[in-house]
Amino acid sequence: MAKLTILGSAAAVPDMDHENVYMVLEGKKSALLIDCAGSPLARLRAAGVDLDKLGSLIVTHHHPDHIYGVPSLLLGLRMHGRRALFDIFGTRENLAVIWGIMDLLGWQKWPNPFPTGRHEVKMTEGALVIDSDEFEVRATPTEHSLPSIGLRIVSKATGGVVAYSSDTSPCDAFVRLAQGADILIHESTGDYVGHSTGTQAGAVAGHCGARKLVLIHYPIDADLKALRWEAEKEFGGPVDLAEDFAVYVF
Ligand SMILES: [Zn+2]
To answer: Which domain holds residue 153?
Structure first.
Protein backbone atom coordinates (compact mmCIF):
# COMPACT_ATOMS: atom_id res chain seq x y z
CA MET A 1 0.00 0.00 0.00
CA ALA A 2 1.11 3.56 -0.70
CA LYS A 3 -1.13 6.45 0.18
CA LEU A 4 -0.74 10.19 -0.21
CA THR A 5 -2.93 12.55 1.83
CA ILE A 6 -3.05 16.26 1.06
CA LEU A 7 -2.89 18.12 4.39
CA GLY A 8 -3.00 21.61 2.89
CA SER A 9 -3.58 22.95 -0.60
CA ALA A 10 -3.52 26.78 -0.62
CA ALA A 11 -0.92 29.17 -2.00
CA ALA A 12 0.58 31.65 0.48
CA VAL A 13 -2.80 32.85 1.86
CA PRO A 14 -4.77 30.03 3.54
CA ASP A 15 -8.38 29.98 4.75
CA MET A 16 -10.37 27.83 7.17
CA ASP A 17 -10.73 25.02 4.62
CA HIS A 18 -7.34 25.26 2.91
CA GLU A 19 -4.13 25.27 4.91
CA ASN A 20 -0.83 26.02 3.20
CA VAL A 21 0.65 23.17 1.17
CA TYR A 22 1.92 20.04 2.85
CA MET A 23 1.23 16.35 2.47
CA VAL A 24 1.93 12.96 4.03
CA LEU A 25 2.94 9.69 2.37
CA GLU A 26 2.18 6.42 4.10
CA GLY A 27 3.41 2.93 3.49
CA LYS A 28 2.58 -0.09 5.62
CA LYS A 29 5.35 0.58 8.12
CA SER A 30 6.42 4.18 7.65
CA ALA A 31 5.11 7.66 6.94
CA LEU A 32 6.86 10.67 5.49
CA LEU A 33 5.82 14.32 5.67
CA ILE A 34 6.55 16.68 2.78
CA ASP A 35 6.73 20.33 3.79
CA CYS A 36 5.10 21.38 7.03
CA ALA A 37 2.56 24.16 7.30
CA GLY A 38 -0.63 24.66 9.25
CA SER A 39 -1.37 22.63 12.36
CA PRO A 40 0.47 19.39 11.62
CA LEU A 41 -0.47 17.32 14.67
CA ALA A 42 -4.16 18.11 14.30
CA ARG A 43 -4.12 17.38 10.59
CA LEU A 44 -2.07 14.18 10.87
CA ARG A 45 -4.43 12.86 13.51
CA ALA A 46 -7.50 13.88 11.52
CA ALA A 47 -6.03 12.06 8.51
CA GLY A 48 -5.64 8.94 10.65
CA VAL A 49 -1.83 8.86 10.44
CA ASP A 50 -0.12 6.81 13.15
CA LEU A 51 2.35 9.32 14.62
CA ASP A 52 4.69 6.49 15.63
CA LYS A 53 5.04 5.61 11.94
CA LEU A 54 6.03 9.16 10.99
CA GLY A 55 9.81 9.05 10.73
CA SER A 56 10.83 11.90 8.50
CA LEU A 57 10.15 15.28 6.94
CA ILE A 58 11.37 16.60 3.60
CA VAL A 59 11.36 20.38 3.26
CA THR A 60 11.31 21.58 -0.34
CA HIS A 61 12.30 25.20 0.40
CA HIS A 62 12.20 27.68 3.24
CA HIS A 63 9.45 30.10 2.28
CA PRO A 64 7.33 30.49 5.42
CA ASP A 65 4.20 28.87 3.98
CA HIS A 66 6.15 25.60 3.55
CA ILE A 67 7.91 25.45 6.92
CA TYR A 68 6.09 27.40 9.60
CA GLY A 69 4.54 24.24 11.05
CA VAL A 70 7.92 22.67 11.86
CA PRO A 71 8.21 24.02 15.44
CA SER A 72 4.64 22.92 16.13
CA LEU A 73 5.35 19.47 14.67
CA LEU A 74 8.47 18.95 16.76
CA LEU A 75 6.79 20.17 19.94
CA GLY A 76 3.73 18.04 19.24
CA LEU A 77 5.81 14.91 18.70
CA ARG A 78 7.53 15.53 22.05
CA MET A 79 4.20 15.90 23.78
CA HIS A 80 3.05 12.73 22.03
CA GLY A 81 5.93 10.95 23.74
CA ARG A 82 8.20 10.30 20.80
CA ARG A 83 11.58 8.80 21.63
CA ALA A 84 12.70 7.50 18.24
CA LEU A 85 14.88 9.36 15.76
CA PHE A 86 13.12 11.86 13.49
CA ASP A 87 14.92 12.72 10.24
CA ILE A 88 14.69 16.07 8.47
CA PHE A 89 15.84 16.41 4.86
CA GLY A 90 16.37 19.65 2.96
CA THR A 91 18.87 21.76 1.09
CA ARG A 92 21.69 23.29 3.09
CA GLU A 93 19.78 26.61 3.23
CA ASN A 94 16.53 24.94 4.34
CA LEU A 95 18.23 23.09 7.15
CA ALA A 96 20.08 26.20 8.31
CA VAL A 97 16.82 28.16 8.49
CA ILE A 98 14.94 25.40 10.33
CA TRP A 99 17.72 24.81 12.84
CA GLY A 100 18.05 28.60 13.26
CA ILE A 101 14.34 28.94 14.06
CA MET A 102 14.44 26.00 16.45
CA ASP A 103 17.53 27.35 18.21
CA LEU A 104 15.79 30.73 18.66
CA LEU A 105 12.93 28.83 20.27
CA GLY A 106 15.39 27.13 22.62
CA TRP A 107 14.25 23.65 21.60
CA GLN A 108 17.32 21.96 23.06
CA LYS A 109 15.86 22.79 26.48
CA TRP A 110 12.35 21.58 25.75
CA PRO A 111 11.21 18.61 27.83
CA ASN A 112 11.12 15.03 26.50
CA PRO A 113 13.77 15.36 23.80
CA PHE A 114 14.12 12.89 20.96
CA PRO A 115 16.99 12.74 18.45
CA THR A 116 16.72 14.50 15.10
CA GLY A 117 18.73 13.70 11.99
CA ARG A 118 19.84 16.56 9.74
CA HIS A 119 20.29 15.43 6.14
CA GLU A 120 21.41 17.74 3.35
CA VAL A 121 19.84 17.23 -0.07
CA LYS A 122 22.38 17.98 -2.79
CA MET A 123 21.26 20.49 -5.41
CA THR A 124 21.97 18.08 -8.26
CA GLU A 125 19.55 16.52 -10.71
CA GLY A 126 18.02 13.28 -9.44
CA ALA A 127 19.78 13.44 -6.05
CA LEU A 128 18.87 10.50 -3.83
CA VAL A 129 17.05 11.73 -0.70
CA ILE A 130 15.59 8.59 0.90
CA ASP A 131 16.05 4.92 0.07
CA SER A 132 14.00 3.00 2.66
CA ASP A 133 12.26 -0.37 2.68
CA GLU A 134 9.12 1.28 1.32
CA PHE A 135 10.05 4.42 -0.63
CA GLU A 136 12.71 5.81 -2.89
CA VAL A 137 12.72 9.60 -3.04
CA ARG A 138 14.80 11.66 -5.45
CA ALA A 139 15.07 15.44 -5.80
CA THR A 140 15.95 17.93 -8.50
CA PRO A 141 16.57 21.67 -8.18
CA THR A 142 13.71 23.69 -9.65
CA GLU A 143 13.24 27.36 -10.61
CA HIS A 144 12.00 29.46 -7.72
CA SER A 145 13.08 32.62 -5.87
CA LEU A 146 14.88 30.49 -3.25
CA PRO A 147 16.73 27.20 -3.64
CA SER A 148 13.88 24.71 -4.03
CA ILE A 149 13.54 21.05 -4.97
CA GLY A 150 10.96 18.99 -6.79
CA LEU A 151 10.49 15.37 -5.70
CA ARG A 152 9.90 11.95 -7.23
CA ILE A 153 8.62 9.31 -4.84
CA VAL A 154 8.48 5.65 -5.83
CA SER A 155 6.59 3.12 -3.72
CA LYS A 156 8.65 -0.06 -3.57
CA ALA A 157 5.51 -2.02 -2.67
CA THR A 158 3.47 -1.04 -5.68
CA GLY A 159 5.89 0.57 -8.14
CA GLY A 160 3.62 3.63 -8.15
CA VAL A 161 5.18 7.04 -8.68
CA VAL A 162 4.18 10.44 -7.31
CA ALA A 163 5.99 13.62 -8.35
CA TYR A 164 5.65 16.96 -6.58
CA SER A 165 6.88 20.20 -8.14
CA SER A 166 6.81 22.36 -5.02
CA ASP A 167 7.02 26.05 -6.05
CA THR A 168 8.55 26.52 -9.49
CA SER A 169 8.30 27.97 -12.95
CA PRO A 170 7.95 25.31 -15.64
CA CYS A 171 11.26 23.53 -15.45
CA ASP A 172 12.92 21.00 -17.82
CA ALA A 173 14.83 19.34 -14.98
CA PHE A 174 11.58 18.68 -13.12
CA VAL A 175 9.98 17.31 -16.30
CA ARG A 176 12.84 14.80 -16.50
CA LEU A 177 12.46 13.90 -12.82
CA ALA A 178 8.69 13.41 -13.07
CA GLN A 179 8.69 11.25 -16.25
CA GLY A 180 5.88 8.70 -16.24
CA ALA A 181 4.49 9.74 -12.85
CA ASP A 182 1.17 8.13 -11.96
CA ILE A 183 0.25 11.28 -10.04
CA LEU A 184 1.85 14.64 -10.74
CA ILE A 185 1.20 17.23 -8.05
CA HIS A 186 2.03 20.58 -9.59
CA GLU A 187 1.75 24.07 -8.25
CA SER A 188 -0.62 26.51 -9.97
CA THR A 189 -0.05 29.83 -8.24
CA GLY A 190 -0.46 31.91 -11.40
CA ASP A 191 1.57 34.15 -13.66
CA TYR A 192 4.37 35.11 -11.27
CA VAL A 193 8.13 34.71 -11.49
CA GLY A 194 9.11 31.39 -9.94
CA HIS A 195 5.59 29.98 -10.19
CA SER A 196 3.32 28.38 -12.82
CA THR A 197 -0.12 28.96 -14.28
CA GLY A 198 -2.72 26.24 -14.70
CA THR A 199 -1.90 26.10 -18.41
CA GLN A 200 1.79 25.67 -17.66
CA ALA A 201 1.08 22.94 -15.09
CA GLY A 202 -1.01 21.17 -17.73
CA ALA A 203 1.82 21.42 -20.24
CA VAL A 204 4.31 19.99 -17.73
CA ALA A 205 1.94 17.07 -17.05
CA GLY A 206 1.83 16.40 -20.80
CA HIS A 207 5.63 16.56 -21.17
CA CYS A 208 6.03 14.16 -18.23
CA GLY A 209 3.52 11.67 -19.62
CA ALA A 210 1.77 11.81 -16.25
CA ARG A 211 -1.37 9.73 -15.79
CA LYS A 212 -3.07 12.28 -13.57
CA LEU A 213 -2.44 15.94 -12.67
CA VAL A 214 -3.30 17.37 -9.26
CA LEU A 215 -3.17 21.16 -9.08
CA ILE A 216 -2.00 22.53 -5.74
CA HIS A 217 -0.72 25.79 -4.20
CA TYR A 218 -3.52 27.73 -5.90
CA PRO A 219 -4.86 31.12 -4.77
CA ILE A 220 -8.08 30.29 -2.93
CA ASP A 221 -9.84 33.37 -4.30
CA ALA A 222 -8.99 32.54 -7.94
CA ASP A 223 -11.53 31.30 -10.47
CA LEU A 224 -10.82 27.66 -9.68
CA LYS A 225 -13.08 26.23 -12.36
CA ALA A 226 -11.17 28.23 -14.96
CA LEU A 227 -7.84 27.17 -13.47
CA ARG A 228 -8.73 23.51 -13.76
CA TRP A 229 -10.16 23.96 -17.24
CA GLU A 230 -6.95 25.65 -18.44
CA ALA A 231 -4.89 22.74 -17.16
CA GLU A 232 -7.25 20.11 -18.60
CA LYS A 233 -7.24 21.76 -22.00
CA GLU A 234 -3.44 21.79 -22.13
CA PHE A 235 -2.88 18.34 -20.60
CA GLY A 236 -5.69 16.31 -22.11
CA GLY A 237 -5.70 13.92 -19.14
CA PRO A 238 -7.54 13.90 -15.81
CA VAL A 239 -7.00 16.94 -13.58
CA ASP A 240 -7.93 17.32 -9.91
CA LEU A 241 -7.86 20.43 -7.81
CA ALA A 242 -6.18 19.34 -4.57
CA GLU A 243 -8.40 19.65 -1.52
CA ASP A 244 -7.32 19.33 2.08
CA PHE A 245 -7.62 15.68 3.19
CA ALA A 246 -7.91 14.36 -0.37
CA VAL A 247 -6.39 10.87 -0.54
CA TYR A 248 -4.53 9.34 -3.47
CA VAL A 249 -3.55 5.69 -3.47
CA PHE A 250 -0.68 4.83 -5.78
ZN1 LIG B 1 7.89 29.41 -2.34
So the answer is: 3-249
